[in-house]
């Protein structure tokens, strides 16, 4: 028969002693786990949970002790409280040991996973860095090869041009040529000119990529540059039966490199002719502000799809050859070079187009001195 005196003796002599030692054990385990997890949120959660259990245990112990020593309650009230207190103590010890072990294992697993992730991330970053360095080396080598090849081709192309020009201008030599031979020499001259143009574009591309493009700015009058370009390409417009309308009269000078300005105009007007329609037209207009001169080159060609307008200035991107008059193929460098030249001289370039109606290329170049 369990009496109140037996419960009082057990609580005082054994219960509180067990509670104190259990508290020390739980506190030590919580502290060790907290240090093991380096003060992580999970370690703080375990410590807080254990603290809550201990507070509950001491509260129940105080309630039992109070009732047992004050003799103000019957055994039927005290005994359930004592049982709850004792069972709670056993559960607390079991959970502390079990939870600490499992939490330690979980934390170890998490730590190992974190280390593996860091190791793989480090390896991946190193691999990406090596790939990037290799890619840069390949790009540099490609630019070097491109520059050397174009530079070496320029001399024989110039020599062929000089020789053909000399022969074609020699009246005595021409008098002894048949019509077929004259046509052959003419075709050789035309294709050599195209080869020379390609070599020049390759050289400019290589210089742009290597950052060694020389730009000598001065006052450039666009009206003179446009007239020079139109004189040089009028044969192309005649061959393609395209009418050129130049409305530019006397815009203010721009601060740019005259040679590069001519190349920009040549590329844009030539494209407007080649990608036009038979009996089409190319219109050149101009506007200017206090800061810049704006030039529009509009053709009546088939137009460019809207989804391709963002790509036409990319290197080696060419418009479908089905849209071009004639049979000459493009390597896709003209617009790339044009954009780079305009940008490097402080200007901008953009394109608008409508299928079936044509395209407009607009570029700006800064003025020499804005008016006061």
From TrEMBL:
InterPro entries documented for this protein: HATPase_C_sf, HATPase_dom, His_kinase_dom, HisK_dim/P_dom, HisK_dim/P_sf, Sensor_HK_Regulatory, Sig_transdc_His_kin-like_C
Catalytic reactions on record: ATP + protein L-histidine = ADP + protein N-phospho-L-histidine
EC numbers: 2.7.13.3
Gene Ontology MF term list: phosphorelay sensor kinase activity
Domain of life: Bacteria
Keywords: Kinase, Membrane, Phosphoprotein, Transferase, Transmembrane, Transmembrane helix, Two-component regulatory system
Ranges in coiled-coil conformation: none
Transmembrane segments: 6-33, 45-69, 75-97
Pfam families in the record: HATPase_c, HisKA
SUPFAM superfamilies with a match to the protein in the record: ATPase domain of HSP90 chaperone/DNA topoisomerase II/histidine kinase, Homodimeric domain of signal transducing histidine kinase
Domain Histidine kinase: 148-369
Record protein name field: histidine kinase
Protein species of origin: Candidatus Ryanbacteria bacterium RIFCSPHIGHO2_01_FULL_45_22
């Amino acid at each position: 028969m369990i009496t109140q005196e037996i419960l009082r003796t057990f609580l005082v002599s054994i219960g509180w002693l067990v509670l104190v030692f259990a508290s020390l054990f739980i506190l030590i385990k919580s502290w060790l786990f907290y240090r093991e997890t380096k003060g992580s949120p999970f370690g703080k959660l375990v410590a807080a949970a254990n603290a809550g259990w201990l507070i509950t245990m001491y509260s129940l112990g105080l309630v039992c002790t109070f009732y047992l020593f004050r003799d103000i309650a019957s055994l039927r009230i005290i005994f359930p409280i004592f049982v709850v207190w004792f069972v709670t103590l056993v559960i607390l010890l079991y959970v502390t040991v079990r939870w600490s072990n499992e939490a330690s294992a979980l934390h170890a697993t998490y730590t190992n996973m974190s280390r593996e992730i860091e190791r793989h991330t480090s390896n991946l970053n190193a691999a990406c860095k090596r790939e990037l360095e290799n890619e840069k080396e390949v790009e540099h080598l490609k630019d070097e090869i491109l520059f050397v090849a174009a530079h070496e081709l320029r001399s024989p192309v110039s020599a062929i041009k000089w020789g053909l020009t000399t022969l074609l201008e020699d009246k005595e030599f021409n008098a002894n040529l048949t019509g077929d031979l004259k046509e052959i020499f003419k075709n050789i001259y035309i294709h050599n000119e195209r080869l020379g143009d390609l070599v020049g574009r390759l050289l400019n591309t290589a210089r742009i990529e290597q950052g060694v493009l020389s730009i000598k700015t001065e006052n450039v009058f666009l009206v003179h540059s446009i007239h020079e370009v139109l004189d040089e390409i009028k044969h192309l417009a005649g061959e393609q039966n395209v009418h050129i309308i130049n409305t530019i009269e006397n815009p203010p000078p721009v601060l740019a490199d005259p040679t590069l300005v001519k190349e920009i105009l040549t590329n844009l007007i030539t494209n407007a002719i080649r990608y036009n329609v038979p009996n089409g037209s190319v219109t050149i207009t101009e506007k200017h502000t206090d800061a810049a001169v704006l030039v529009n080159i509009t053709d009546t060609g088939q137009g460019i799809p809207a989804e391709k307008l963002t790509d036409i200035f990319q290197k080696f991107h060419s418009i479908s050859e089905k849209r071009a008059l004639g049979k000459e193929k493009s390597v896709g460098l003209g617009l790339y070079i044009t954009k780079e030249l305009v940008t490097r001289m402080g200007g901008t370039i953009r394109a608008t187009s409508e299928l079936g109606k044509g395209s407009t290329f607009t570029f700006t170049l800064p003025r020499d001195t804005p008016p006061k």
